[in-house]
Amino acid sequence: MRAAIAAANEDKDAGAILMTGAGRGFCAGADLASGGPRKEGASTGENVAYGMEIAFNPMVREIAGSAKPVIAAVNGVAAGGGVGLALSADIVIAGKSASFVQVFGPQLALIPDMGCTWYLPNLVGRARARGLALLGEKLPAERAAEWGLIWQCVEDDALMEEAMKIAAKLAGGPSNAFGEIKRALDNALTSDLSTQLDYERDTQGMLGDHPNFAEGVTSFLQKRKPNFQ
What we know:
Layout: H1 2-10, E1 17-20, H2 44-64, E2 70-74, E3 77-79, H3 81-87, E4 91-95, E5 99-101, H4 104-108, H5 116-124, H6 126-135, E6 139-140, H7 141-147, E7 152-154, H8 159-171, H9 175-188, H10 193-207, H11 211-221
Parallel strand pairs: 1-2, 2-4, 3-5, 4-7
Antiparallel strand pairs: 5-6
């Protein structure tokens, strides 16, 4: 996964990244049978933390930090860390049969990881985040969309078509601005209004000198579709 994300980021012909599950589910979470990466002489807990440090956490950071828009098409269940994997994307679209389930606490006596403890309260609020994490009940895709956990829920047979439409639209957009939009929205989570206004000013000053802004203004005045770099 990390190699694929890196390759897409380096590919100048790729304007967006789309990830989905191969098979009947998006992601079933960690492979508990394999035990994951191990260090000689380490305890079980130390090995769990080690796997997060060298593999899972870097993957979440690389997906969330991608300069290109990332779309997750959730087909079937997203369980455990699979929820964090999906929510690391910028836009999450799910089929109606999809669901999101936090198995960490009720099933494994662990806290949610792969960013779930950050994404859930920020996206759906304190009460819903605690309910999902403590009870471990499946959240159907339709309700996830109603709650604002994901962008959209569609019919299963339309999932990939709709996801590709979104990817194509983003791929044809101003990639330089999209990367800055992602950074600005993330920055706002730890800024007050005055600080964020300064951030917006500085970023607009930089983007305003890019050819894409001139093209956007010209195309608007000429009432045509912009041709962004």
